[in-house]
UniProtKB/TrEMBL annotation:
GO BP annotation list: nucleotide metabolic process
Chain location of the short sequence motif Histidine triad motif per the record: 103-107
Gene Ontology molecular functions: catalytic activity
Domain of life of the organism encoding this protein: Bacteria
Record-given protein name: Cell-cycle regulation histidine triad protein
Cited InterPro entries: HINT, Histidine_triad_CS, Histidine_triad_HIT, HIT-like, HIT-like_sf
SUPFAM superfamilies per record: HIT-like (SSF54197)
């Protein structure tokens, strides 16, 4: 796969070795390295080695290449520490979705307990949507394929 880079992108600089990283896995297409924030110990970022802004910019080949690596990297992280009980896998796309670096990246966040220093909550809005509302949303999405 041919790679393109953005000279102003911190992740592209990490890929090119201009900024050091704690790399845990690397091949011709993907780099996985520790997130320096370490939401929990072992928190790893997986990035394509070609600059792509977010999930909306992936083509089928890039998606297949990058996402095929996630299970093996996740298993390696889990196997590295017997205290890991689970893992959140997150991909934020756009500022409103908390994306802060605009080079697509997938967070692999090991979970040790339900009281570790990481949280995700969703509000149950099911009472706000009728069957008609859900069918309308379903049809709008299905029409895009």
């Amino acid at each position: 796969m041919e790679h393109n880079y953005d000279d102003d992108c911190i992740f592209c600089k990490i890929i090119k070795g201009e900024i050091p990283s704690y790399t845990v896995y690397e091949d011709d297409d993907v780099k996985a390295f520790l997130d320096i924030s370490q939401g929990t110990p072992g928190h790893t970022l997986v990035i394509p080695k070609t600059h792509v802004k977010d999930i909306f910019a992936y083509d089928a080949d890039l998606a297949a290449t990058v996402f095929a690596k996630i299970p093996a990297i996740a298993r390696a992280i889990k196997a590295s520490d017997p205290a890991i009980k689970g893992m959140n896998i997150l991909n934020n796309n756009g500022t409103v979705a908390y994306q802060s670096v605009f080079h697509s990246h997938i967070h692999l966040v090991p979970r040790y307990t339900d009281h570790d220093d990481f949280g995700m909550t969703f509000t149950d809005n099911s009472s706000k949507y009728s069957e008609t509302d859900l069918t309308k949303i379903q049809d709008q999405i299905k029409a895009q394929f």
